[in-house]
Amino acid sequence: xxxxxxxxxxxxxxxxxxxxxxxGMVIRGAITLVVAALLLGLVNALVRPVLIVLTLPLTIAxxxxxxxxxxxxxxxxxxxxxxxxxxxxxxxxxxxxxxxxLIGCFTGRYIGPPARV
Length: 117
Description:
This protein is mainly alpha-helical. 75% of the residues lie in helices and 5% in strands. Helix 1 crosses helix 2, helix 2 crosses helix 5 and helix 5 crosses helix 6. It is globular and about 40 Å long.
């Protein structure tokens, strides 16, 4: 349970940094930030793998760059589902997802691999 909370806080922190850096990405309130991190984790665990399999030929043709579009779509889906979290357009979602991914990757090195259930 402790590792889950640490990863949730890291997700919330990365969303907070992305909202501070990316124009057009707005998260209103700390509760919205934590719920957005939780929802982004769920969307990345459930929806993203399906989209990756469905778009595999396009991902291969673009040498993996289409994964950036999928990540942006996952962030946009969370913004669409959650009131208080807004994205002004595709590029806000794209750059926001890049920032969230980089911070998550960087901090993930310090806390170790995710626990398997």
